[in-house]
Specification:
Protein name: Tetratricopeptide repeat protein
Keywords: Repeat, TPR repeat
Strand content: under 5%
Structural class: mainly alpha
TPR repeats: 85-118
Helix content: over 70%
Pfam families: TPR_19, TPR_2
Low-confidence stretches: 1-10
Mean pLDDT: 91
């Protein structure tokens, strides 16, 4: 028999995971990254191949200043989507916050090469000799 929240007592269904994903987006927008991570943990446990959920969880980890888990999630996204400019840019920001400038520069430049977004180009600092 369904519970009052629409979930069956036997477990979660795909629709619930979509709702959790959307709720996690809202939590991240409302500056509750830890709440977003909790929701996304269940989504990713059920759908480990879901790159969008992993990217959102990576952003939530970054917002919560959990740099190592953010790095891991952004790296998984890039293994699956090596041409994802945003993931390169976000991984670069993660490296930058972790005081790893060489790795940050590499991913800033990859992001800018994949997408000439002005923010990516500025961060890439192609005019620097290094």
């Amino acid at each position: 028999m369904p519970e009052s929240n629409g979930r069956t007592s036997g477990g979660r269904n795909p629709e619930t995971h979509v709702i959790d994903f959307r709720a996690a987006e809202q939590l991240l927008a409302a500056r509750d990254p830890r709440g977003a991570v909790k929701l996304l943990d269940e989504v990713i446990a059920a759908h480990p191949e879901n790159t969008a959920a992993r990217l959102l969880r990576a952003r939530a980890f970054f917002a919560a200043a959990q740099l190592r888990p953010a790095e891991l999630e952004f790296s998984i996204v890039l293994e699956r989507e090596p041409d994802n400019a945003f993931a390169h840019f976000a991984l670069a920001r993660t490296y930058e916050r972790a005081n790893r400038p060489d790795q940050a520069r590499r991913h800033f430049r990859l992001a800018a090469a994949l997408d000439p977004n002005p923010e990516y180009l500025a961060a890439a600092r192609f005019d620097d000799a290094s």
